[in-house]
């Protein structure tokens, strides 16, 4: 009986200790973060880089809202972010505990960004597009998109005249296709990682027309698509006038499941507009006339941290262009300039 009593006492004691430890652990995990501090150091080189340090007691992660449409979760609280444009930004940081409780703090940062053009084509010399900058992709079908045009390298389909590049879609029988056009690309001539791309363009009209200003990962020959990544800076449907599409394609978000958004503007086919990509290690942002309309967070989980090359083309019909207006006999995209800034 004495032995049984001692055993019972030990069992009760152990259960009591275990229960206390569970209660203590639960209490620790349920503590809200406190004492949040956020510090920012703006670099003096006018690059737009700002070094942030956030710290809080009992915090396990920090959610940054940089004030320019970009959001990022930083486990350590320490991060350097690059702003694309000069301005004063309100930065909000939310510190989270393991149990999900939060505390937030906002600060303002003022940055000056001075970028320079390190590659461009102003299309100021009449004749064929500069062969040092552009090559041609030739063929029919649109590489799986069921398009109706045959891409050529003829001056009838792409030429520089009067200070603009003209990519011309023509209704004609050519090598088994009912339309011709051109697809220019800088592959093997120019590629880059991170920066800002600005393209001034006037788009073609007509049902079925599908102009595009876009980029592909330079490793496409080895990695294939969509593993190489694709950035569509601008796409437009002649069947949906003035609606600008901006889309990223990559594994899990390819084809019709692309990660994209749209922006409706005026006079897309009668006036020049500026289409911009701002690409950094933190985010990929798309603009029309300096108005941000789509942001995608960048990370090592997506293929947007390598060299990409540029493409410009006008397609007809296909999976995106849609129903073709048979009365359209020609349509032209004009490009005033393309500039890449670092």
Low-confidence segments: 9-15
CATH class of the largest domain: Mainly Beta
CATH architecture field of the largest domain: Sandwich
Return Rg in Å.
27 Å
Mean pLDDT: 92
Q: For the terminal residues, how far apart are their CA atoms?
A: 85 Å
Q: What fold name goes in the CATH topology slot of the largest domain?
A: Jelly Rolls
Specify the overall morphology.
elongated
The counted number of beta strands is: 25
Query: Approximately how much helix is present in the residues?
Result: 10-25%
Structural class: mainly beta
Query: How would a textbook summarize the main sheet?
Result: 11 strands, mixed
**Percent of residues in beta strands?**
over 45%
Element-by-element helix/strand order: HEEEEEEEEEEEEEEEEEHEEEEEEEHE
Count of the separate structural domains: 2
Total of helices: 3
Explain how this protein is built.
- With 342 residues, the chain is mainly β.
- The chain folds into two domains: 34-111, Immunoglobulins (Immunoglobulin-like); 117-341, Jelly Rolls.
- It is 11% helix and 48% strand.
- Strands 8, 10, 11, 12, 13, 14, 16, 21, 22, 23 and 25 form an eleven-stranded mixed beta sheet that branches. A seven-stranded antiparallel beta sheet has the order 9-15-24-17-18-19-20.
- Strand 18 and strand 19 (243-249) form a beta hairpin.
- The longest helix is centred in the N-terminal third of the chain and has 28 residues, at 2-29.
- The protein is elongated and about 75 Å long.
